[in-house]
Amino acid sequence: MPSLKLSDLFRRDTAAPTLQERAASLRAHISPRGAEPQPIGEPRQEPSPAPVPLPASSLAAGLDLASATMGELQVIHDIAERLGAVAYAHAWGPRCRRGENEYGAPDFNAAGELVQWIGDALTAVETAVYKEARRRIRTNSTDRETRLQILALPVTQNGDDDELEAFARELLAHAVALREGR
Fold first, then answer.
1. Residue of 103, 80, 100 whose CA lies nearest to 91
2. CA–CA distance, 144 with 58 (Å, rounded to integer)
3. C-alpha closest to that of 70 among 129, 153, 152, 127
4. Which of 114, 122, 124, 175 could bond 60 through an S-S bridge, CB–CB 3.0 to 4.6 Å?
5. Sign of CA dihedral 60, 66, 69, 71
6. Number of other residues whose CB lies within 10 A of the CB of residue 94
7. Does the global pTM surpass 0.90?
8. DSSP H/E element including 99
């Protein structure tokens, strides 16, 4: 009796569609209630309603960041960044898009537009916290360090050499102040 390898058990006929491809084909041809069924192999033709733009985000404007402590600003920034990343990740999932355009970019459905809007709103919060942190005068080592943590990633990624140099000087000044006990 020939020996059977584990890879032999999982070999797949590459000419046959995968389970995911078959499921996508079935989903594309399932008719909504009351509609005529579409033959397999022919795309369903549905009129696309005109997209309604979501209102501009007022989430960031609704926050009183000026009265927040530096610690609170950092928490707001961190939460907005994490939740925004989750929202954007969901937008790229199959439940939030109809498919892809000819360039490979996602064609978002209503759920995708919603999570994109949520991600954009939370990005606006991150930006507002960044601007508030930049505006703040550093008073103690904890606030200086928190402020530098909030500013670090945007400054290092924005491509502005002058801003990066100013940030590096501020970081060095913070290190000197820590050594001197201030």
1. 100
2. 29
3. 129
4. 124
5. positive
6. 13
7. no
8. strand 97-100
pLDDT in tens, the chain (182 residues): 555 554 444 455 556 666 566 655 655 555 455 455 555 555 555 555 655 555 555 788 889 999 999 999 999 999 999 999 999 999 989 999 998 888 888 899 999 999 999 999 999 999 999 999 999 987 788 999 999 999 999 999 999 999 999 999 999 999 999 999 88
41: left (phi over 0), alpha (psi -120 to 50) or beta: left
Residue pLDDT, tens place only, 79-128: 999 999 999 999 989 999 998 888 888 899 999 999 999 999 999 999 99
d(CA 65, CA 68): 5
Number of Cβ within 10 Å of residue 83's Cβ equals: 15
Which tokens belong to 90? Answer: 């969901």
Tell me, rounded to whole angstroms, the distance of Cα 150 from its chain centroid. 18
CA 181 → CA 77, 136, 175, distances in Å? 28, 21, 10
